[in-house]
Design brief:
The protein is mostly beta strands. The protein has strands spanning 57-61, 64-71, 74-80, 89-92, 98-101, 105-109, 115-120, 126-127, 131-132, 137-143, 148-153, 159-164, 183-184, 190-194, 199-203, 209-214, 218-223, 229-233, 238-242, 248-253, 269-271, 277-280, 291-294, 300-304, 315-318.
């Protein structure tokens, strides 16, 4: 099958398995894998979907600093970034390079495992957001006092945009709970989920408020192609689809899922072009599934509970879903 037009990333997966890809890259650092993570059980055959073969995907999770590239039901490539905290955001670009956030730094690694860009942040700062804006620029938000949105050219390391992000009561809150996901939309606005301030705010690039929605502990917010906003509330255990009039038009609570493959919690989410939604979870230390895919009618069509091959799932990029990762808003994640 030729994927060139709609799924450009599927055409470059051979870059990750070519002869020039080393077992370990020059900057790759060994990680610790707790015994509850990798090496235990695979997804039960009776679970919905096709296990690891359901989607080609780039996969990361907190507490496991190994990124996984999965294709045709197998892990075809990994990259380790050493001890410490934590993966929260990751994207494969159309040249095969992968940009990612590691809480205290951000980076870009090639398919042949060369770390071609590393962005260090200051003391008492964190970075949990990473989004490509084109082939060279990436958007990050630096959790800080105050937080700031930053656009960096990864080829030159030049900061092409920087702006303080409004934040209330800075002195009363630490930086860790400020932001996880922060996205630029296709109309060049910002969606900011305030994890500790229980709201999602849409701003223009001068940080004038365009839209605001109150919700408990929003981990992620995505502007969908239909104009609605998909929000994952960590404390409500619910993912909401909210229209511009602030009406909830769809939602799914984890407690609605069948008990035998219910997620313990959810962090980020993905809306596929077919309308299905994938919820990502850390998996409660190996006791619960990592990924669930549900239809708009909330039918569960895929459950991934694979602790033989993988660690927790904080985020995935579904590579076989149509879209351009370098056009903001083209992938709903």
């Amino acid at each position: 099958m030729n994927y060139t037009n709609e799924t450009p990333l599927m055409n470059i997966l051979n870059l990750f398995t070519s002869e020039n890809v080393p077992v370990r890259g020059p900057e790759e650092e060994e990680i610790d894998i707790p015994n509850w993570q990798i090496g235990t059980t695979a997804t039960p055959a009776a679970y919905p979907g096709n296990g690891l073969a359901q989607h080609s995907m780039l996969y990361i999770g907190e507490d496991c600093n190994r990124m996984f590239l999965i294709h045709n039901g197998k892990i075809i490539w990994t990259y380790d970034t050493g001890k410490g905290y934590e993966y929260d955001d990751i994207w494969m670009k159309k040249n095969g390079n992968i940009v990612f956030s590691r809480m205290y730094w951000a980076g870009e690694v090639t398919p042949d495992k060369k770390l071609v860009w590393k962005y260090e942040i200051g003391a008492n700062e964190e970075v949990h957001t990473m989004q490509p804006l084109d082939s060279e620029r990436v958007l990050m938000v630096i959790n800080s006092m105050p937080p700031r949105a930053v656009i960096v050219n990864t080829k030159t390391n030049a900061v092409t945009y920087e702006h303080t992000v409004p934040y209330e009561n800075l002195t009363q809150r630490g930086v860790h709970g400020q932001f996880r996901r922060f996205r630029m939309t296709k109309t060049n606005t910002f969606l900011a989920p305030y994890l500790s301030q229980n709201k999602v705010v849409e701003y223009d690039m001068d940080f004038n408020v365009l839209w605001e929605y109150e919700v408990n502990k929003p981990w992620a917010a995505i502007r969908l192609i239909n104009g609605n906003t998909l929000i994952t509330s960590e404390s409500d255990r619910t993912t909401y689809e909210v229209n511009p009039a602030k009406e909830v038009v769809w939602k799914i609570c984890l407690d609605e899922l069948p008990e035998e493959y219910r997620l313990a919690s959810s962090q980020s989410c993905v809306r596929l072009k077919n309308g299905n939604t994938i919820l990502c979870s850390m998996g409660n230390r190996g006791t619960a599934p990592q990924l669930i895919e549900v239809t708009p009618d909330k039918e569960v069509v895929w459950v991934l509970k694979d602790w033989r091959e993988l660690g927790p799932a904080t985020a995935v990029q579904i590579l076989d879903d149509p879209g351009d990762p370098e056009i903001p808003g083209d992938l709903e994640r």
